[in-house]
Every structure is written in structure tokens, then in C-alpha cells.
Model the fold of this input.
Amino acid sequence: MSSQNVIEVSDVRRTYVTEVGVFKKEKKHVEALKGVSFSVKKGEIFGLLGPNGAGKTTMIKILSTMLIPNSGKVSILGLDPVKEHSLLRSQINFILGGERNLYWRLSAYDNLSYFADLYKIPQSVKKQRINELLELVGLKEVAHQKVETFSKGMKQRLQIARGLVNQPDILFLDEPSIGLDPVSARQLRDILRKLNNQGTTILLTTHYMYEADELCDRIAFVNKGQLVEIDTPTNLKKKVDDVSIIECSILGATPVQVDSIKNHASLHHAQVEQYDFTYKLRLQTNDPQRLVPYIYETLKAATITDLTILKPTLEDVYVKTIGEKVS
Ligand SMILES: Nc1ncnc2c1ncn2[C@@H]1O[C@H](COP(=O)(O)OP(=O)(O)OP(=O)(O)O)[C@@H](O)[C@H]1O
Ligand SMILES: [Mg+2]
Done:
């Protein structure tokens, strides 16, 4: 293991076996991970992105000692999460799935105190650490308020504090900003960045491209149990350097006209949304000079209420990568 790498994953596979049917039970096999390999360096913020069912949560559970892989090799901080899980658990922490794991009838302080005791944090440092964590996540003012009175954003920030009671070297987060409003999501990103600046390695999953682009040093795209791309956000975006995005809103177009635009030879990908009489198109093209006149020519009597040419974002890389590799 390279001294720089705190996470090393090599050819990991995991299949879930479930029973289906009421009377005649049959075993159903779902291959959630089909041989995934990657590594994460100390101090990185690493993002796992991919569609629903891609295997992200399965991977996080394996890395955080909650699930055993069927085969392959995993090393976290030089330890084996299967054989050395108790030693490893004192050095990592994880936040999976929303608001569970907190005691709603207890205050923020008492929740952290409870989890600090679980991690056997010495009483001599416990109070100061809890206060520092409440400060970090901006909950000091409401430290003695019951969690049931908290908003979703406050609960999620308390989850982060809970995940830090044992001062983990690596923090695993599964969709930390799901359901948060834009301001709460930004507060959360600020906390994660601050934490990372203090030396914590972070591995997170997210469906928010903007968040991944802003926060992550490197990103892995996962699809159908396989890793399809891994790089820095900047390098990933270079993969769509040759692509322009055309966004347009059209009033009164026919489905035939929209199909004709979607089938234009210069198109890499088309997203189409329809609201009553309006179509909203987001088109990835390698030739906007040809496509834009074609759109006007095809639509004839329909009205184009808006047409903008944009630079591609991480979302366009995602759509191109995952879109291309989905069978
Ligand atoms: N406990 C389980 N039993 C059976 N199948 C499971 C179980 N957990 C996950 N799976 C299946 O494994 C595959 C990967 O699931 P996983 O939850 O890891 O995906 P994910 O990338 O986290 O998706 P999402 O973005 O929806 O959270 C899916 O096909 C899912 O249905
Ligand atoms: Mg998941």
C-alpha cells in the first residue's frame, strides 16, 4: 500500500441474495458491485457519483465495515475492514441515510455526549470536544434544545458532529445534502471543507453535480456496479471540451418536430422536458453552428421563447459518460 493512500480497493465484488415469491421461493441474485478498484489519498475529498442502484451505498458500507465483500481486497488506513473492524472503527466514522441515528428527545449536547461515551472518549476531554463540534457545525446556541425541534438542516449538521466525536481520520458520508435547501447545503459544504482543511479525508456520495464539482478533489462515476470514470472535476470536464450545450424553450412544437431535432447528426445527447405546450430541450452538440439554424428551420410556426448556448458542466460529463455506457 502506498503511504499516501488511506483507502485502497481492489476488484471488489458484492452480490445480494434475496428470496422472491410467496409460496415457491426463488433466490434472486443482484450483483451490486462487479469488480471495483480505486484508491483515495490522505486528505482528499473523494466523490462517488452514479445513478440509483449503481452500488454507491454498497461501497460505502463495505468501506465503513458494515458489509463484507464477496471477494476483492480492501485496505483502510492500512487495516482490513473485515478482520480488523474494531480497531478500524475507532479511526473512521460514517453518516448514512438522513435523520436516523439521533435521539430526538435528547438535546444536541446530550446526543453527542451519548455517542462520545460509546466511543469511550475520556471524560476529561469530552466536554471541550463536544463544545468545539457544536461550534463547528453552528449549533452552539441551541446545544440544549431537543433535537425534535430542529430543522432538517440542523439535524444533518448534528449528524456531522456525531460523525466527528471520535476525531476520525476518514469520514464516510452517504448523500449528506439530500433534502437540504440551497443555503443549508452550502453550510454543509463549508463544514466539510473546513473539516478537510483540518486534515480529515472525506469520501461522499451525492446526486448533486454542482456539489461534487465544488467540493471534490476527485470523482468516480459508478454505473451498474462498475467504475466507469475517475478523475479531477477539471479533467472530467475536459472530456466534453468539444461539446456545446444548447438550452431552448419552445412553445407550440409538435412531437415530430422535437424528434427531428433530437435526431440531428451533431447531437451527443438530448434531454427533453414537456410542460403543457412548452418543450424545454438541453442538447449536447459538437456543431452548434449547424444545429441552431436547423432548430429554427425545423420549428417553423412554433415559437422559440429562449435559446442559449452554454459551456458544458460536470452534469454534461456525467450524462455523456453514464449515457454512453448504459446498455
Ligand atoms: N439489502 C439489499 N438486498 C438486496 N439488494 C440490495 C440491497 N441493497 C442494495 N441492493 C441492490 O444492489 C444494487 C446497488 O444498490 P445501492 O444501494 O448500493 O445503490 P446506490 O448507488 O446507493 O443507489 P442510490 O443512488 O439509489 O442510493 C441495487 O440494485 C439494489 O437494488
Ligand atoms: Mg445509495
About this structure: The longest strand covers residues 5-20. Residues 182-197 form the longest helix (16 residues).
